Amino acid sequence: MQKKIIALAIAGLASTAAFAQSNVTIYGRADVGIQSRGGNDGGVQGTRNKTEMGNGLNAGSRLGFKGVEDLGNGLKTIFQAEFGIAFDQAAGTSGTATSNATWTNRNSYVGLAGGFGTVVAGRLDGVRYGVYGKYDAFANGGIGNFTQMTIQYDRADNAIAYISPNFAGFDLILAHSRHTGVGKKSAEGSYSNLGDTNNNNGDDVLYTAKLGYTNGAFTADVDYETTFKKDIDADGNKLYVATVGAAYDFGVVKVGGLYDILKAQGGSSIGEVDQRAYLLSAKAPIGKFTVKATWGKLNNRLAGSEDKDATKLGLGVDYALSKRTQLYANYGRIWNKDGSTVGTSGAYTITSAANSNTGIGVQGVEFGIGHNF
After folding, report:
1. What is the CA radius of gyration of the chain?
2. pLDDT grade, residue 239 (50/70/90)?
3. What domain range is 201 assigned to?
4. Domain contains 77
5. By percentage, how much of the chain surpasses pLDDT 90?
6. pLDDT score recorded for residue 125
7. 38: which of 49, 143, 210, 283 fits an S-S bond (Cβ 3.0–4.6 Å)?
8. Rounded distance, CA 217 to CA 255, Å?
9. Would you state the pLDDT for residue 3?
């Protein structure tokens, strides 16, 4: 099941044409496969091959509950509680190929929807992460996806978001997190995820604004986000991202592209970063098959590391056994330049500093089965 930006997920829930006074739906995905990674290139050297069973390879395994209650006069209460689960191991253990191997809170919220739009609060899917998933044929899943190469807030803790109604093809998302979970500042001056012992100092605060447009087969999104640590003692700790994506569905093939700018100052939660990301992607349905291809480049412009770039190619195919069950096969290959250390990750997304994804090797292949319920 393709990971959707919160606007689409909530709109689909809130626009149900007919429902009882109170309605709860149970849903989820079971995804298990085999993955093999390895190879040397750039700063990724001396890595042996690793072959393993993996949970959530093509899209994260999950169990969720969502519901809506009609409050009258066009107003509804909506909620969703979604959890990552492991189908190949006991909960609470680690070692499989994804970050969703254990029972963990995913996109979860409660809110109100009506003619004014939708307002939700909880642990929300990252808006920029959703834009990447929308224009990458791998939808942030599978070893061929490009999102793995970038620094992402895949979800934001302590978040609130407003999703506007659609006006002449346009929609707007405004989101804010009081503390994304990156780290708080302790009384001793270091950052950690432990208790806040110094008021709100060190909280990583996030602001997001995204404008989307849809006109028939054409879609486009522009997203701007900034984060900073609330710390009166720190200076120059901000992070900025700006992302533009567009796609056109020709029927026989859907093509898309994305351009992303990320700048972070030295006091930010990821250190000093100056990156550009470029993405071209295509997806073609051929009978029961869906063929996917993605090419992307990560350009590092930080002084002293200007040539530490990385390029990735992703190829994949899904085969529909039914509307809910798919077989999949994916391939990913990374080329590092001048000591860049970007490696393949077993998870379909990571959060890391610039060129610090020291995964296992630079190429990999995976095969698996996924079932949506």
Report:
1. 20
2. confident
3. 6-372
4. yes
5. 54
6. 92
7. 49
8. 11
9. 38
Query: Residue 233: what pLDDT?
Result: 56
**Of 209, 206, 262, 270, which Cα lies nearest the Cα of 237?**
270
Q: Indicate which CATH number applies to the domain containing 341.
A: 2.40.160.10
In a 13 Å sphere around the CA of 33, the CA atoms on its Cβ side amount to 28
Torsion of CA 57, 29, 326, 218, to 10 degrees: -90
Looking at the domain assignment, is residue 237 inside a domain?
Answer: yes
The answer, yes or no, to whether residue 317 has pLDDT greater than 50, is: yes
Tokens standing for 48? 């042996």
Q: What are the φ/ψ torsions at residue 128 (nearest 5 degrees)?
A: -65, -40
The answer to whether position 58 is within a domain reads yes
Please write down the HEC assignment for all residues of the chain: CCCCCHHHHHHHHHCCCCCCCEEEEEEEEEEEEEEEEECCECCECCCCCEEEEEECCCCCCEEEEEEEEEEECCEEEEEEEEEECCCCCCCCCCCCCCCCCCCEECCEEEEEEECCEEEEEEEEECHHHHHHHHHCCCCCCCCCCCHHHCCCCCEEEEEEEEECCCECCEEEEEEEECCCCCCEECCCCCEECCCCCECECCEEEEEEEEEEEEECCEEEEEEEEEEEEECCCCCCCCEEEEEEEEEEECCCCEEEEEEEEEEECCCCCCCCEEEEEEEEEEEEEECCEEEEEEEEEEEECCCCCCCCCEEEEEEEEEEECCCCEEEEEEEEEEEECCCCCCCCCCCCCCCCCCCCCCCCCCEEEEEEEEEEC
- Residue 1 within any structural domain of the chain: no
pTM of the full structure: 0.84
Task: Give the pLDDT score at 40.
Answer: 82
Residue type for position 3: K
Cβ count near 308 (within 10 Å)? 22
In terms of pLDDT, which residue wins out, 43 or 66? 66
Rounded to an integer, what distance in angstroms lies between the CA atom of residue 103 and that of residue 160? Answer: 23
* Predicted local distance difference test score (pLDDT) of residue 212: 98
Tracing tokens 């990252």 back to the chain, one arrives at 126
Unique residue bearing structure tokens 């990999």: 364
Q: What is the pLDDT of residue 356?
A: 41
The total domain count for the chain is 1
Q: Does the pLDDT value for residue 185 go beyond 50?
A: no
The pLDDT value recorded for residue 65 is 96
Determine the Cα angle at 285 with ends 283 and 286, to 5°: 130
